[in-house]
Amino acid sequence: MVGGVIPAAGLPRGLGHPMYDPLYEAAVRLNVPLAVHGGSSAGLGLDLYDSFVKILVMEHAVAQQIHFTSYVLDGATVRFPTLRMAFLEAGVGWVPYLMERLDEKFEKLPQQAPLLSQEPSHYVRTCPIYFSCELEEKILPYAISLGLEKKILYPSDYPHERPTLEEFLEDVPRFRARKGLSEQSKKLILRDNCIDFYSLNPAR
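RE: above sequence
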């Protein structure tokens, strides 16, 4: 297997907690990445909603942010600086917001993140943390400008949710024709970052 998946639902602690260290140690020893996937409406207050579409808007992104905040502030990136970790199926738009917010709160309360010697966004930019995007996200160029160009992954999600193969086949040509992104960024997102995350060995 080229990697492992951690469900974002039903975990007793945030993913920065030391209880997960044996898993992280094994992943580093085996040189395989881990990916956080999915969300859960349990405990997020989403029982206030009366339709699934409202829950779907929130559950993946909120669950990912909960675990991402723990992963960074609890110092998992310091304890396991080479562990490749991805946060999948929530887009990348929340990442710039959370990078800025983490830095702001860390500046006020650095003693509550004692393993961090630099601002949280430094670890997001320099450690092997990856994020899937949505290919049409308008915020994608801004996310890339924050030093995330080599951390954003193509989100095929195949064969989930969409009824026909043709709908999936339109994604890549549409993205390659997109304005405002360099050809280098497109190549990284569609191919090279995925190769690096999963340690694949295709002919380049």
